[in-house]
Amino acid sequence: MTTSQLEESIDYSVAIAALTQADPILATLIEQVGACTLNLGRQKGDLLYCLCESILYQQLSGKAAAAIHRRFLALYPHQGFPTAAELLNTPDEDLRSAGISRPKIVYLKDLAQKTLDGLPTMAELDAMDDEAIVQTLIPIKGVGRWTVQMLLIFRLHRWDVLPVDDLGIRSGIRRAYGLAELPNKKTVERIGQPWRPYRTIASWYLWRSLDITTPASTAKP
């Protein structure tokens, strides 16, 4: 699905029908959660903006990260968001004053430098396959596979992404499938195989299922 198509209303009915038929446990979650609104949570902005936001949100609660992100943006009141050169030239002390940790300052500066050196545009990324995008972006400090997968899901809206290391995904699977412990990467991949080519949609339902107070099915796969 291209970026231009995202401007239109997204119909998830085919994906949901396929997932419901492929996995009865996931079908229960889909029924409990309701309509898929993944498109309403997608990111906007260029690559620098999106990866800056992802870096700032790493290993923090959403509330704490949002506060730091606001203070970061407030450092650039005239343009709303810095260019790569402006970010690179921002004193570390100013970034620290926004609550950004020293390691994340290193990550942001490395991202800014690599942007100046010539990272792909969003349009160029849009023409690449998922794994090529991962391999292109993970050389950036602080940007691992999970960070790129979030970009694939929430900015490029790729439909077959399964973040096997994501704690929310692992917790959702443990709860829904009645596992004694959090599943490892191989278990997540095995359980997620029937969800192809709509693993992004399945992931969204697993994330949302954690907000449900009534326990999901405890049947084991």
Quick take:
The protein is mostly helical and 221 residues long.
Please, what is the average pLDDT? 91
Strand content: under 5%
How many runs of DSSP E, i.e. beta strands? 0
Helical percentage: 55-70%
How many helical elements? Answer: 13
Radius of gyration: 19 Å
Distance between the termini: 31 Å
Low-confidence runs = 1-7, 215-221
- Run of helices and strands: HHHHHHHHHHHHH
Broad shape: elongated
Tell me about the biggest sheet?
none
Structural class: mainly alpha
Can you tag this structure with a few keywords?
single chain, 13 helices
Summarize the structure in words.
Helix 1 (13-22) packs across helix 2 (24-33), helix 3 (47-57) runs antiparallel to helix 7 (102-118) and helix 3 (47-57) crosses helix 10. Helix content is 57%, strand content 0%. It is built from 13 helices and no strands. It has 221 residues and is mostly helical. The protein has helices at residues 13-22, 24-33, 47-57, 62-74, 84-89, 92-97, 102-118, 122-126, 130-137, 145-154, 167-177, 185-192, 199-209. The radius of gyration is 19 Å and the shape is elongated.
